[in-house]
Each structure stands twice: as structure tokens, then as C-alpha cells.
Amino acid sequence: MGTLERRLCGALVGAFVLALSGQGFGAARLTLEVGVAGSLVPNTCTSVAARISGVGFPFAGSLVLRQPMGNAWRGEATSTVRIPLTLLGTGLQEWAIPIYDATRPLEGVLLDASGGPLASATVNLDALRRDAPFPLQVGTFGQPVTGDPAFVDPEHLPLLWQSYEGISSVWLGRLSSGLNPERCAALARWILAGGTLVVFTGRDFYLLDSPLLRELLPIDLPTLTEDGRGSFYLSGQAKSGGRVLLRQDAVPLLLEGDYGAGSVFVVTKGVFDVDEATWAAISSHITPAHVLSLSSPTKALLEGVRLRRPSYLVAAGLVAASVLALATIVLRVGRPRRRLLLLAITTGSLCLASGLYTIWAERVAALYQYITIVHVQDTVAITMFDMELFATDDRPVRVEVRDPLPWLEELPKSLQVARFDIDLDLRNGIASLVLAAGETRSLRAGDRGQALLRVDRFEESEVRIVNREAALGQAILFDGGRAYALGSIPTGESRFRLRDAIPAEDVTLEKDAATVFATIAGAFPFQEGTWLVASREGEREKRYSGLEIEVREVAVYVVKGGRNG
Amino acid sequence: MASPDALIDEETLEPFLVLVLLCGVALLFSVPWAQRVKEFSLFSFLSRLPIYFSAHAFLMGVLGLNLGATSAARGEPRPAAALLLAKRVLLGQFLTLPYLLFARSLYPGKEAALLLILVYTTAFSLACALGGRLLEGPTRVSSSRAFPLKYLAFLFYCLAPLPALLALSPLGLPAVLLGTQAKEGVLLSFAVPTAAAALFFLLLRRKRGGESSA
Questions:
Q1: A14 shares contact with chain B (CB less than 8 Å)
Q2: How many domains does chain B have?
Q3: Which residues on B lie below 8 Å from A436 (Cβ)?
Q4: What is the ipTM metric for this complex?
């Protein structure tokens, strides 16, 4: 073997060993990007993006995100999120994941289909940490807004509306390449949930113009008008509910409109056409986001749930009958055999009665689960969930959640008082928690909603409702500030004639839905346009991992209607 | 009039009545007091404990001790005493069976644990009965000493393991079997009363042999 051959052999063996060790060509690589514009607020959902390379495509496996929280003084817990992955090629995958503690790092591990680790990455969250929600400026601006804003390019806006949780307002400046429709939809969903958007328009309007953005703006048929000094402003017809907050030279400068539970502010001039004084005046009118929270009504509803348990009266009767039978038979019956026989008959009868009772009686449930769902639908739709859990048993709980969502657990200041570890399996939709008897847990999640209902208002006081969901128990229609009780809404298409409006004080839903409605009603502009509010309630018992679980659920649907004819 | 080989009569009624009455009270305490979830926390300290089963284990032990003492006082012949005591212990279990069935609705899905508790309390009560019979026998310890001695030993066995090995105590074993904690010492907890019952039974037979030869 010559020198060249020996070298070649050596190189081949070296490459083979390198490949086997996974260090050379083809080694899996995982990169994580956390937060929106490099910022995050602890105890909120935020954007987590992963770039995976060096694996064979198509790739099937999972990503496990593990985050320790707390410390020796506060107490410690761990959050684990298991995300299924199916990748066709290298690219950025994005999720909205709860982040609890920015003082501890987030560790991501890429696993293959058999659960073997392929690559890992760690992100130091402390550098990204913000203590309060912050304004987000998108695009190019002449100056920053007050409140320590973060800056981001439009192409780096989150793809999921839940990632906006730590943001107080989104400001759109000059966007040379406009807004990606998917990111624009995520932004619209966040506004629908209670977010705040500020849009600078003027000459820059056509750079970001899109059908969805036009739906958000409080102006109909927007056009550019010159103010006579070479500057352009956006003009048009104010939509119903649109309010002018500021004027400049008698021309509306700042308008506010509602979109779902959120607000959209439009500055009719471009971001570089506004002087410092006007900028300050605009800033003073902007209200921060106030995203709907279902935690408080869900807590109240769970607290009111009647505990399932066998009857005291039956237990007392059983004790009394046992004692009396024993004493009477032993004291009154002389013959030992007859005494034993009678004792056997009476105790046997009591056993039979007790056994039959426990078959029919309410058994003590180990876990009570109350879920409130609010579905909001306009041009886009969202679904918000809040889940409260209460345990009467010390066993660990594995809650099968209907939707595989990144549930965020509400944590107290001290983690010493209970075990707050949470493990979310997003493949199977299972949340694993540990609750001791008497403990409660509060979790929330959001999802992009589907267009479940369609509401069309016709002339002649008629409304058509197309319901793609299960039948809804009760419904109220708001039309031009007046409310009409519609009763139940069946699945499919149905038509209702609006006759007698109900007085404002009687506008409510029934039973548990009334508590949810009372919490969210103030957030929506029901006095403007046509809105359908409907509800559905249910309860069921299920057994999971040997635990008796009582599940109650109330869903409220808030749907913006359209006018036809 | 009391028959010497009767399982239950006026003389032995009291221990059975105490068992049935106090187990019944414990059963009432085991039913959660709270009507609604918000009221539960006030009583959660009670709901965390399997009160009925702990009380049942304790009272079955007391029943055993009382039956042993009564058997000795009645001078029941030793060959038959052990069998008679075993039958009386089983009668005690039978009389509380309606409660156990009722308690099933308090611990749904834990039938296996309930069965184990039933087996354990039978062995424990039998060990207490045979031990009590042995201790109260005329040739061993005087009755005035035997009473505090057996109850001190009984209380020590019930209470001493609680801080260290919960499962070894008749009060703690139901909590271990029905709860989520590690099942450490469960085998030992079953072995101790079973071994004690076997030992006391053998000692009773030996005493019988001794008395016969004397």
C-alpha cells in the first residue's frame, strides 16, 4: 500500500469515526429564539422559535422545552412542554409557550421518534426579561414611544396571537414591505382578545394596506388627501363606533375604533409627518391592551360547584340501624343459633342496602375541573380557555385537555406551598400536575378560533344564523344598541324575527354563562352594529387514571354580525 | 344466660357494640362535610385522612384485646379459645361490613386497597385477641397489671411508628394504602400482626400443654 493509499484510508476511517460520533457532517443542530423583539415578560406566553438542521428530512420527533422556576427561598418547580415535530425541511418553527421565570434558563432538547436525544440548546432568559408589558414598535420610526419600547421588523412579528401577551400596545410605523397576512391575522386576533394597535398612515398607508387591515381600521373607504402644505393624510368615512380623538387644522388626526374587545387607533398622518408635540398628544390617548381574562369568573364558578358525596342521612341511618339491630338481637334473642342467624340476616340486609346505595349514590370525585371558553369571532376568530382544577384527593392528576394547547399555570409568589410542576404533552393533549387534597390550580390558554357561526342581519327585522357547532342553549342578539332574546339556536341554518327588545337590565345569559357574560360584556361594543351572544353549558363525569373527575364547561360565543339587504 | 361457646352474648356484646358505634361515628366523620368546593378547604385536614379506616383498624385492635380478656375471664378452654377468638374477630368484621361497603363511595377505584385493609385489620385484631388472651391467662400476669400493660403495648404499637414508618402503624397503614406515598413498609406491616398472631397461637398451645402436664 502506497503513501497516498494509506492517507486516503486514514481519511476515510477518520470521516467514519467523526460521523459515528455525531460531531461531523450531518450532526443535528438546534437553535432557539425566545421572546418578541428579544423581550419577554415572565408568567406570560411568548414566542419560542426553533431552527433545526442536520437531521434527515422529513423528520419526525419532538422538542422538549424544560424550564426550572423559583429558587431555594421561593421554592422550586419545573415546567416541561413536549412538542411533536414533523419537519419537511430546515426552517423556523414557532410556538407560543408559557415562560414562568426569566432568572432561570430555558433548555430545549430535540428528540428523535424513539425519544433519543439528538441536540440541545439553552437560552439565558435573564437578558430578555421585562418586568411589565411593553410597547412594541414595528417598522421605522422617528422617535420611540414612552414606556421603554421594543423594536421589531414586521417579518419578525409573532405568528401566534398568544405570543403578544406581554405586550401593551403595537405601533405600526413605516413598513416598506407591508405586513405578512399570517402575521397580520395574528395581530388582529390579539386585538380581538383586547389588544391595542396604533397605525400611522398618511403617505405610508398603501405600504401596509390589506383587506384585513381595512377591517381593523375605524375608517371606511380610506383615501389619501393632501392638506395643501404638501403633506398627506388619510381620510374616509368613519365606521360605526369610530371616534375622533384629536384634530389638527380641523382635520381628524387620531381616530379610535373597536375591534372585538380591543382598540385600533389610526393616526391619519405618516410617522415622519408628526412633530414632537403632536406625538406626545397622540401617546397620551393610547390605552394599553387589556386582554380578556376568564380567571376570576371561572374561579367563582368552581367555588360554587356542589361537591359530590354520599348522603349524611343515609350514613347516619346505616349507623343507627347497625347499632340498634346488634343491641336488640343480642339482648332479646336467647338462643345462640337463632341470635347468630338473625344477626347474619340483618347485617346481610344492611350490606345489601349499603352496597346498592353506593352503586346509585354520588361517589366522591377526586378532581373537579371547571373550564370556561370564550369564542370571539369577527373577521378573524379566537378561542380563549380558562381551566380551574380542585382536588379532593392527594394523587397526582393527569388532566386530559381537549385541545393540545400550551396551558399557562397561574403561579403564586411562593412555590413552597404546593408542588407546581407542570408537564404539557402537546401531542396527546395531556397536562400533568400534582395537586394535594384541597388545592386548586388555575390554567389558561388561547387558540386560533374557527368561524363557527355566521350572523346576517336582513331588513324586515330578520336575522339568519348559521351554526356549525352543536346546538346552543340560549342566545341574545344585539342590534343597533337593542337586545333581543332568541332562545336556543339549533345546528345548521335558522332564521329569527326580531320582535320585542328586552330591557337593558334583563340582558343576561342564564345559569353559569351569566357569570362569564358579566365579566366580558363591558369589553365589547354591543351598542354598535349587530352581535350575537350565545352560550352552551355541560357537565360530565369521567374516569382517568383511576380518578373520578367531574368536568363542567361553559362556553360563551361572541360573534360580530353582518348586514345584508 | 351466657353460653360458654357462644360467639356473641350479653357478656361479649359491649366490645362489639363499641366497635359498631364508634366505627359508625368515624364513618360519619369520613363523609366530606363541605357542600361546595369553596367550603372544602375548611375541612380539608379531615378529608386528607382516611378517618374511617384508621378508626376501624384501631377499634378492631381494641375489640381483639377486649375479646381476649373476656375469653380469659370466662375461662374458655384453650384448645377452643383460639378458634373462638378468630370467629369473634370475623364476626366483628362482618358487623362492620355495611360500613365498608358504604365507604367504597368515599374511595372510588380503590377497592383493592379496601380489601387489603380488611385483611390487615383481621390479622391485627386476631393478634390482639390472642395476645390479650395470653397475657390475661391466670398463670401469667395478674389482671390489674395485664390491663395497663396490654393497652400500653397496644398504644405504643399504634403510635410509635407514625413519625418514622407510617405503614407499620395500624393508624397509618390505611393512609399509605389509599394515598399516593411510597408503599414502604407495607409488607412489614402485614408481616408483624400475622407473625404475632402465629406466635401467640403457638404460645397458647404450649401453655395448654404445660397446664395439661401440671
A1: no
A2: 1
A3: 48
A4: 0.90
